[in-house]
Amino acid sequence: MRYHGRTDTGRERSNNEDAFLTLEIPPLYIFGVADGMGGHAAGEVASTLAFSAVSAFLAENREGLQGMDPTVDNFSTFIFNMVSEANYQIWQASRNSRDHHGMGTTLTLAILWKDHYFVGHVGDSRAYMVHGEGILKITRDHSLVEEMVANGQLDKEDAQNHPQRHVLTRALGTGPYVEVDFFHGAFRKGDILILCTDGLTAMVGEEEILRVSREGTGARETAARLVGMANRGGGPDNITVVVVEHS
Q1: What is the pLDDT of residue 45?
Q2: Domain count, the chain
Q3: How confident is the model over 202-230, as pLDDT tens digits?
Q4: Domain range holding 26?
Q5: Is the pTM of this model over 0.85?
Q6: Using an 8 Å Cβ cutoff, are 190 and 124 in contact?
Q7: At what angle do helices 72-96 and 42-60 cross, to 10 degrees?
Q8: Which CATH number does the domain housing residue 214 bear?
Q9: 127-130: long-range pairs with CB below 8 Å, 24+
Q10: How does pLDDT run across 82-115, given as a tens digit for each residue?
């Protein structure tokens, strides 16, 4: 397994409210991206707190995770409990600080075990799988515009530039409980998993992500090139990418 994570402030923001996680707990790999929101640097606090909570949960449950029967139900339950704990900690921190009131964050997490991926997802950061000559969008954005597209109120082309495209319908920290989407599937030799925040996907299309990923330059170079493309497109937001190659 080869992987690399990269985050960049972008060209228009003064601080970076994104965060990412890369972690090995043999025989498992854990990766994640988060995009914080809120004033007074609260977004940065929320995304950082999300991964602090995730890391603490993994440390406390390391032996159980490593010895767990690797079924889909077990991974689903583990990811739900981990994300729920992160959500609760962010919500509590938001309630206890006037400066951080109303903060929240997206969170997209992937656990890789042998030839399988297990993804937990809240918000509009994304997970993609590049395999063969195609690219699969694993996650579904929890956004107002995505709901409008799903309901037939808006087409995909108009959604790209809709003024409410960044309005989330679900995020960590906005309440004591959160609904977590769960996805699983095959992750085989030659496949590439990409986790990213909307600072990338707003500027770089799926076909471009596929092209760069398939040019075989390695995880580090792929991540750097994708971030560079988002910045060359204007870089209006923070940009975070984690690229994982199954070698």
Answers
A1: 94
A2: 1
A3: 999 999 999 999 997 899 999 999 999 99
A4: 2-245
A5: yes
A6: no
A7: 140
A8: 3.60.40.10
A9: 127/183, 127/193, 127/194, 127/195, 128/193, 128/194, 128/195, 128/196, 128/206, 128/209, 129/185, 129/187, 129/191, 129/192, 129/193, 129/194, 130/191, 130/192, 130/193, 130/194, 130/209, 130/210, 130/213, 130/214
A10: 999 999 999 999 998 888 888 999 999 999 999 9
